[in-house]
Design a protein that fits this description.
Protein name: DamX an inner membrane protein
Largest sheet: 4 strands, antiparallel
CATH superfamily: Sporulation related repeat
Number of helices: 4
Strand content: 25-35%
Helix content: 25-40%
Number of strands: 4
Organism: Vibrio maritimus
Pfam families: SPOR
GO molecular function, one term: peptidoglycan binding
Amino acid sequence: MNALASNSYTLQIAAMTKLEDVQLFLNQHSFEKPVRIYPTLRGEEKWYIVTYDNYATIQQARDAAEKLPTELQSLGPWPKALSQVKREIARWTE
């Protein structure tokens, strides 16, 4: 994630507290573009955030969300700035 431009966007498609649940999620769905998982802390709880692909603009990310398979659209994917992702990763490493 750190290699991606901070002014780009990704789609957050899931957030889970157990790595096993992340693996089950990945096994249940097929993805055409890269999926990335990163850990963060929310309060005192560890979370794993599942993101999909990388986009130059928020509008490209929104458009891509509308083109996802129905089962992924039903999860309510939303654009997330890479600058925010990097802040969340930093919480984990502090």
